[in-house]
TrEMBL record:
The EAL domain, residue ranges: 24-278
Protein's recorded name: EAL domain-containing protein
Residues of the full protein shown: 622 to 913 of 1025
Localization of this protein: Membrane
Coiled coil: none
Length: 292
């Protein structure tokens, strides 16, 4: 018995009946058709140094321009295709699109590294590295450091040895990794110790609550300490207010991403944004408390 969810037709079903199974397959087919019909789009959200305003690059975030339902965010359709081959197809499309955007910006003289989110199943696909190598060549040998990948720490990365090998192979292609939503998984510390990732991306839930909740603040400070101890970089996501930016700078977190800086935008809007953007004056002036 499929749930009649009203507005959100793409919800997760219990898969406890044939009807649910059929409904899920129908939804997957719809995403797949949308992909083939060219209805998917990448938006780009800047990552910056909060103190001096330097733009570090952008994160690619997928959207679905649905013919009837308007612009849909990934939270609506990615869960539907999880563990299905369509997830791999979508992931390949995203990588290709991002690499083509990189070449385009490069040809326009815009140096703008792109970070792409990669699903765990896609990363562990047997052809992942070979496909990526081909893609990089096809795009005219993208400069090292222009493409990075974001991976969410999740139990789906179950084979940590294999994931490490994939990451090492990507490093040889000049591609680095960020561990996304850091601190939300059950085994963040294991991943930190075992995976060759360059940077931790502090989950937005800690940033959102750090000003009111001493425990979230403590977790955030703990992550910053861990990053230092392990020699990894760190960036905060979900920086929504000027005050949050100030707090992060005081804690020694220099890099951030969030609505206080910019919302995700179409590629065409980015050059103008880069031109116009300056960080709030208060960020430049914020000292780091007790910096080591
Ligand atoms: P994520 O990678 O952790 O991306 C951050 C999400 O937070 C994005 O949501 C972004 O639009 C949103 N965000 C950014 N700044 C702020 C802020 O200041 N406040 C708040 N409240 N939110 C902010 P989005 O675009 O809906 O993406 C959701 C998730 O979907 C992403 O989380 C990522 O895990 C996944 N995703 C997005 N695009 C792709 C993709 O191309 N491939 C894969 N595999 N996953 C993707
Ligand atoms: Mg991400
Ligand atoms: Mg995240
Ligand atoms: Mg997330």
């Amino acid at each position: 018995r499929a749930k009649q969810g009203g507005k959100n037709r793409y919800e997760i079903f219990d898969l406890d009946s044939d009807t649910d199974q059929r409904e899920r397959l129908r939804q997957i087919a719809e995403v797949s058709e949308g992909l083939k019909a060219g209805q998917l789009q990448l938006y780009y959200q800047p990552k910056v140094n909060l103190r001096n305003g330097e733009v570090r690059g952008v994160e690619a975030l997928v959207r679905w321009q649905h013919p009837e339902r308007g612009l849909l965010g990934p939270g609506v359709f990615l869960p539907v295709i999880e563990h299905h081959v369509t997830e791999i197809e979508l992931g390949r499309w995203v990588l290709r699109e991002a690499c083509q955007q990189l070449s385009l910006w490069q040809s326009q003289g815009l140096v703008m590294p792109i970070a792409v989110n990669i699903a765990a199943d896609h990363l562990q696909h047997p052809r992942f590295v070979a496909d990526l190598e081909t893609l990089i060549k096809e795009c005219g040998d993208l400069a090292v450091g222009m493409l990075s990948l974001e991976v969410v720490e999740t139990s789906a990365l179950e084979d940590i040895e294999r994931v490490s090998e994939v990451m090492e192979a990507c490093h040889r292609l000049g591609i680095r990794f960020d561990l996304d939503d850091f601190g939300t998984g059950y085994s963040s510390l294991t991943y930190l110790k075992k995976l060759p990732v360059e940077r931790l991306k502090i989950d937005q839930s800690f940033v959102r609550d750090m000003l009111d909740d001493p425990e979230d603040l403590a977790i955030l400070e703990g992550i910053l300490g861990l990053a230092r101890a392990f020699g990894r970089g760190v960036i905060a996501e979900g920086v929504e207010t000027e005050e949050e930016g100030r707090m992060l700078l005081r804690l020694g977190c220099e890099d951030g991403q969030g609505y206080a800086i910019a919302r995700p935008m179409p590629a065409a809007d980015l050059p103008q944004w880069v031109n116009d953007w300056t960080p709030p004056v208060s960020w430049r002036a914020t000292p780091t408390a007790g910096a080591a």
